[in-house]
Amino acid sequence: MPDRNAEARVEVDPKLLEILVCPVTKTTLRYDRERQDLISEKARLAFPIRDGIPIML
Protein backbone atom coordinates (compact mmCIF):
# COMPACT_ATOMS: atom_id res chain seq x y z
CA MET A 1 0.00 0.00 0.00
CA PRO A 2 1.56 3.35 -1.02
CA ASP A 3 2.29 5.97 1.59
CA ARG A 4 -0.24 8.80 1.23
CA ASN A 5 2.18 11.32 2.76
CA ALA A 6 5.05 10.48 0.40
CA GLU A 7 4.05 13.19 -2.06
CA ALA A 8 3.74 15.79 0.69
CA ARG A 9 7.20 15.13 2.13
CA VAL A 10 9.64 17.97 1.69
CA GLU A 11 13.16 17.88 3.05
CA VAL A 12 13.75 20.38 5.83
CA ASP A 13 16.82 22.58 5.59
CA PRO A 14 19.48 21.11 7.93
CA LYS A 15 20.55 24.64 8.96
CA LEU A 16 17.00 25.33 10.11
CA LEU A 17 16.98 22.14 12.17
CA GLU A 18 20.18 23.26 13.89
CA ILE A 19 18.66 26.50 15.18
CA LEU A 20 15.12 25.42 16.06
CA VAL A 21 14.36 24.59 19.69
CA CYS A 22 11.22 23.53 21.52
CA PRO A 23 9.11 26.64 22.27
CA VAL A 24 8.13 25.14 25.64
CA THR A 25 11.41 23.81 27.04
CA LYS A 26 13.98 25.55 24.81
CA THR A 27 15.70 22.18 24.26
CA THR A 28 16.80 20.68 20.96
CA LEU A 29 14.35 18.89 18.71
CA ARG A 30 14.68 15.53 16.97
CA TYR A 31 13.60 15.37 13.33
CA ASP A 32 11.36 12.40 12.53
CA ARG A 33 11.73 12.20 8.75
CA GLU A 34 9.17 9.39 8.39
CA ARG A 35 6.37 11.26 10.19
CA GLN A 36 7.53 14.74 9.18
CA ASP A 37 7.56 15.93 12.81
CA LEU A 38 9.94 17.75 15.10
CA ILE A 39 9.97 15.94 18.43
CA SER A 40 10.62 17.49 21.82
CA GLU A 41 11.61 14.56 24.04
CA LYS A 42 11.60 16.68 27.20
CA ALA A 43 8.13 18.20 26.62
CA ARG A 44 6.80 14.99 25.04
CA LEU A 45 5.43 17.02 22.12
CA ALA A 46 5.53 16.65 18.35
CA PHE A 47 5.43 19.62 16.01
CA PRO A 48 4.29 18.79 12.46
CA ILE A 49 6.09 19.98 9.36
CA ARG A 50 3.75 21.05 6.55
CA ASP A 51 5.15 21.89 3.11
CA GLY A 52 8.61 22.24 4.66
CA ILE A 53 7.43 24.66 7.36
CA PRO A 54 7.52 23.63 11.04
CA ILE A 55 4.22 24.40 12.78
CA MET A 56 5.27 25.28 16.33
CA LEU A 57 2.27 27.12 17.75
TrEMBL record:
InterPro entries: Trm112-like. GO terms for cellular component: cytosol. It comes from the Bacteria. This is Trm112 family protein.
